[in-house]
Structures are given as structure tokens and as C-alpha cells.
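User: Some background: our group keeps a shared notebook of sequences we're curious about, and every so often someone picks one and asks for a predicted structure to add to the entry. Today it's my turn. The entry only has the sequence so far, pasted here. Could you supply the structure so I can complete it?
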Amino acid sequence: MGIALVVDDSKTILEMLTKCLIQDGLTVITAANGAEAMAQLNIQIPDIIVLDVVLPDRSGFEICRDLKAEDATSNIPIIICSTKDTDMDKFWGKKQGADAYLTKPIDQKELSKTVKQLIGR
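Assistant: Of course. Here's the predicted structure to add to the notebook entry:
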């Protein structure tokens, strides 16, 4: 059983993603902003991170880039989930180190498939 950190400022999206990931057998921890996400990472290192781009305190792109630059977190797969769906947004997400980029509204089957691919389940 793996652990997923879900970072999104929408309570509705957090609940939907959490439910989906729990159905896939993951334990889920959540954060509503970048500061909460970093605090959660100090407590426990997850097997995967699902990260929104538009957050109240800092950009998900920024968080992704910072996590990929740190030895302790560089190998954690990151899925960016965002309403920002242009080719440039997707390119920029990958450039920051994201392992996958899914657009909202999230297709739960696609999320499950992506998570399984990234954490080898």
C-alpha cells in the first residue's frame, strides 16, 4: 500500500481525488497550499504527489521544480492536475519535472492508470 500526497485548494477536488486514490488502495494525505504540502513532506515522504498548479501561496510549477531539485524528494513521481490545459502549460509542467500532466475535470480512470504506471502497481 502506497501513500499519496494530494495538494489542491479546492475542498471538492481534494475529496474527489482522495476517494479515487483510496479506491486504488493508497493512503492519502492532503494539503490545501504549498506551505501545508511542505509541512506534510517533513512528516512523511509519499510514494506519489498529485499537485494543482493554481494555489493560494505559490505555484504548483514552483513546488514541483523545488521538489525535483531536492535529493530527498527528487524521485517522488509528481502528477500535475490543473485546469490550465494549453500545450504550453503541459510543456512547462514537464519542464519543471512533472512526471505526468492531467487536466481538470479529472478522469478518474486516467488518474488511476497514471498513478499505477508511476508507482509500479
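Suggested note for the entry: The beta strands are 3-7, 27-31, 48-51, 78-82, 100-103. Helices lie at 11-23, 34-43, 60-69, 87-95, 108-119.
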